[in-house]
Amino acid sequence: MQEFDWRSWLPRLLRFWRRSLQFRTVAITVLLSSFAVGVIGTYMSFSIGDNLLNSRQEQVNAEAARANLIAQTIFDDAPSTDVTVELSTLGVSVQDAVASSTTTPGGTGIALKRTPNQQTAQILQPTSSRDFPDEVVSDQMRAEVASNPGQVLLQSVLLPNNEPGLVAGSQLTVPNAGFYELYLVYDLADAQRTLGFVQQTLLLGGIALVALIGAVTYIVVRLVVGPVRLAAETSEKLAGGELEVRIPEKGEDVIATLARSFNGMADSLQHQITQLAELSRVQQRFVADVSHELRTPLTTIRLAGDLLFDERESFPPTTKRTAELLHTQVERFEVLLADLLEISRYDAGAVDLDVEPTNLVRLVEEAVDSMGTLAAERGSDLRVVAPGGYFEADVDARRIRRVLANLLGNSVEHGEGRPIVVTVDSNATAVAIAVRDYGIGMAPDDALKVFDRFWRADPARKRTIGGTGLGLAIALEDTGLHNGWLEVWSVAGEGTCFRLTLPRDRGIPISASPLDLPPVDPVDDLEEIDG
Prior knowledge:
- With 531 residues, this protein is an alpha+beta fold.
- It has 3 domains: 25-193, Beta-Lactamase (2-Layer Sandwich), CATH 3.30.450; 255-348, Orthogonal Bundle (Helix Hairpins), CATH 1.10.287; 356-530, 2-Layer Sandwich (Heat Shock Protein 90).
- It has helices at 6-19, 21-77, 84-101, 139-147, 189-239, 254-310, 317-348, 360-377, 397-414, 444-447, 471-481, 526-530, and strands spanning 107-114, 127-128, 153-158, 164-174, 178-187, 356-359, 382-385, 392-395, 420-426, 430-437, 485-491, 495-503.
- The strands form 3 sheets. It has a 5-stranded antiparallel sheet with strand order 2-1-5-4-3, sandwiched between helices. It has a 5-stranded mixed sheet with strand order 7-9-10-12-11. A two-stranded antiparallel sheet has the order 6-8.
- It is rod-shaped and about 170 Å long.
- The model is unreliable at 523-528 (pLDDT under 50).
């Protein structure tokens, strides 16, 4: 048979305690009820035991006093005699008379003992009933009886059969024979049995009462907790997007009021969320429609601008500069329209991946080559670091190329002419690309907003290499489409590092990125970078 392992059940019990309000309430009620019933039962048991003992002591005391009176009367009424045999016969008569007068249950023996240290003319030999236990009469009790004439003294003892008992002692005066002690022994087994029965009844009654309290509490708490649990489950469904769920409304009590209030809140939330969703759809459609409708006039403007740009050398200087500005801004406007259309596709959920096995090192090298001229103009040296390993991954090469272009463009823009290091590494489940610059960097609060649309760390800073303010937002969307991570680390004055982590195989989640963030620089210090 398998041994019960309480250590494995204790965590489950604690977890159930934390999660179940009903179990917690019933358990606390049962524990408190058990404590209260235990305290009351213990008090009643001790009280009943004391009352039983006091009652028996009063009975024994009265009977011992009566026995003392009977014995003393017999001795006093007996004719004076000097014959020891007649004294012994008188002692037996006293013993028989006392035994016949005993009515209290549990009487087990009678003894007549001579008080020690006496000098008398005659001696009455001590006598006792056959079943009298001499060992229960202690020397201390005999001394107290001898020193308290006219009183009945009681002492609790343990009888030879291990049952509780009482010894009653009193002093007698025997003419011509001196002082003697009369002892009566009583068995309290019947009182002990009565007390045991009462204690057993209290125990069983207490257990039944606690069980009844637990059952009633369970039923009541179930009636109360049931609607609360239903409200919690409905709240979870509502939070999960099931806006139509509601709590049934029954009665007019506080639970019904809770249900009505909750349903009213759910109706309001559903209405507001529906309104916001509709507004979002209208906004997305507006952006898409406007972007699409602007393409035709923009194409016409672009053609006219290209024509003017090609003929700019024949224009006066002012007109020439105007043609160049027109050409530059039209190009930027085209890029902005393309980015707006791309963002609107993401917002509408109309984006698909064209996944194929791609060597990311080669993809990074192509992106670096395409950005090399611009980086050289800004004085930045682009470096690729690829330690080696599994660099192939199932990705949409066009989208990842766009992500790299945005990250590299951002680093060239803010790199302050310092080297830019692009690191590629991989592990069994993921491939990572880190773009590290040593430029102006950002404050931690600004780094949290870097992927927001149209956000700038310094609004007064002019863009020098173009850009629409949507590049990093689109890069984040492209990364999310691959179930990847796009993270940023930046410190003002030390530079910025963007880390792109992608799963090697589609559908397999990333366990950890192959590259550290904050980055571990591939160079020793900034002096080497500046060099």
